[in-house]
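JOB MANIFEST
job_type = single_chain_structure
chain_count = 1
residues = 226
[input]
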Amino acid sequence: MTGLDIPIEFLDIEDLAHRWQCRVSTIEALVETDKLHLCLRPAALEVALAQTQPEKNSQIVQKLSTLPIDHRYVYLMFKDKEHKIEITHVGNCDMKEILTGPLRVDFFDLVIPMEQIEEFEFVYGNMTDKDNEFKLLSDDFTCFIWCGKEYQFGEQQAKVIKRLWQAREDGTPWIYGKRILRDIDSNADRIKDLFSHNKYWRRIIKSDQNGKYKLNLPPKQLTLFS
């Protein structure tokens, strides 16, 4: 069959290596340098949680299957693909609070969510294509083109983007999130709360992981209107 548009939520390591035409060791290097975060295949969790209460099972699987695996376990599974590894923590979740014993998984239970893959491809696939990267289609910043793709944001979200653009033009691109929210008269507690319904916002806005944000653009790259 050809021409099928099948939605895929994740790829395993070997599938991703094939997609990118690289070695599995390259994926390993990206994981070890925190450029990719491996998660657990939902099917592996469903087997492990078979004895839990059915009404809680799906919620637990949904939560755990999107959390990254601790590096120490990732390292073991890369080095010993033929044997199952006992995992006691997934992300910040203690498996002992959910299961009677540690979760036992192997190398082929490791997957990378498609959203993360597409984000990686977007960032690194466009690093050399900086010409006309960002074009406003509306003066209130609610609509613009980013690397050839059109994005739309709500009024409050657009105010954040506009405030960051102003800071960038002033030569001080990094601003504390609390200050941004105060400047735009927002009732939100955090920047990410304001953008909770737009999964693409991190393509536009970069965080320093210490409370500051800036536009993910090099200097003097914004073009008003196309």
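[summary]
The chain has two domains: 10-116, 128-224.
The first strand starts at residue 10 and ends at 12.
exit_status = 0
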